[in-house]
Design goal:
The chain is elongated and about 60 Å long. The protein is an alpha/beta fold. It has 2 domains: about 70 residues, no CATH class; about 150 residues, Rossmann fold (3-Layer(aba) Sandwich), CATH 3.40.50. The protein has 8 helices and 9 strands. It comes from Mesorhizobium hungaricum. InterPro entries: MoCofactor_Util/Proc, XdhC_Rossmann_dom. It holds the Pfam family XdhC_C.
Length: about 230
C-alpha cells in the first residue's frame, strides 16, 4: 500500500471517520476516499454502496477492475436515561453489535445493579459529552422524558450529525420540545431529523417492546444512510 494512503487511512480511522481504500487492480495504485467526497460514475456509485454497507469487494467500473476496502467506524448507541426501556434496549443493542453507553444524572436510576457490565455515567449529559463527543457513527436515544436532561443531548446529537436521533414522547410533547430546540439554535431541518415518537410503529405496549422498536429504527437508519440523497427511498 502507498505510505501516504496508509497514513491518511489511519488518520481517518483514529478520528472515527469512514473511508474507502480504492485500489486500481490494473496498475496497483491506491487512493483514499473519505465519506462525502465526490466520485462520479459507476465507481462513485460502488463507493457509496461500500460506505452504506461496510462491505469490501472487487468491482468493475468504467471498464477497469478495482478493489474497495471499506473502513467504517463501529456504530454505537448512546442512551440518555437509565429507565426501564434502557434496561431492555442496552443488552439487545449489544447483541446486534452496537456498543452502548447510558447517561443519566439521577443516581437513583443510574446504578450498576440496574445496568450490570454496562458503561454507565451518573452525570449530566453535557459533562459526559464534553469528554466523549458524539459523531456521525453514533445513534442517540433520549428517553428520560425530562427536558432538563434530554434537550442538551438532543441538540448535541443534531450538531454532531448523529446518524440517528430519537426522543421519547407524544406528538404534543415533541411539539414543545421542537420549540425549545429551535430556541437553543437548532435549525428546523435539523429538528425534523428527530424520530419522535421514538421507534418503529409496531404498537409497542411495554418497555421491552419499545426497546425492540427503537433498536429496529436505529438499525434501519444506519443501513439506509446515503440512500435519500441518491433519490432512493430511505
Amino acid at each position: 500500500m502507498d505510505p501516504y494512503a496508509l497514513k491518511t487511512l489511519n488518520a481517518e480511522r483514529r478520528a472515527r471517520r469512514a473511508a474507502v481504500l480504492v485500489t486500481d487492480l490494473g496498475d496497483g495504485r491506491d487512493r483514499v476516499v473519505r465519506e462525502g467526497d465526490k466520485v462520479a460514475g459507476e465507481l462513485g456509485a460502488a463507493i457509496e454502496t461500500a460506505f452504506r454497507t461496510g462491505r469490501s469487494k472487487a468491482v468493475e467500473a468504467e471498464g477497469r477492475p478495482f478493489f474497495l476496502n471499506a473502513h467504517l467506524p463501529q456504530p454505537r448507541l448512546v442512551v440518555i436515561g437509565a429507565v426501564h426501556i434502557s434496561q431492555a434496549l442496552a443488552p439487545m443493542a449489544r447483541i446486534a453489535g452496537y456498543p452502548v453507553e447510558i447517561i443519566d444524572p439521577r443516581t437513583a436510576f443510574a446504578t450498576a445493579d440496574r445496568f450490570p457490565d454496562m458503561p454507565l455515567h451518573a452525570e449530566w449529559p453535557q459533562d459526559v459529552l464534553a469528554r466523549q463527543p458524539l459523531d456521525g457513527y453514533t445513534a442517540l436515544a433520549a428517553v428520560t422524558h425530562d427536558p432538563k436532561i434530554d434537550d442538551f443531548a438532543l441538540k448535541a446529537a443534531l450538531d454532531a450529525r448523529c446518524f440517528y436521533v430519537g426522543a421519547l414522547g407524544s406528538r404534543k410533547t415533541h411539539a414543545k420540545r421542537v420549540e425549545r430546540l429551535l430556541a437553543l439554535g437548532a435549525s428546523a431541518d435539523d429538528v425534523a431529523r428527530i424520530h419522535s415518537p421514538i421507534g418503529v410503529d409496531i404498537g409497542a405496549a411495554n418497555p421491552a417492546e419499545i426497546a425492540v422498536a427503537v433498536l429496529a429504527e436505529v438499525i434501519g437508519a444506519f443501513r439506509s444512510r446515503g440512500l435519500a440523497r441518491r433519490g432512493e427511498a430511505a
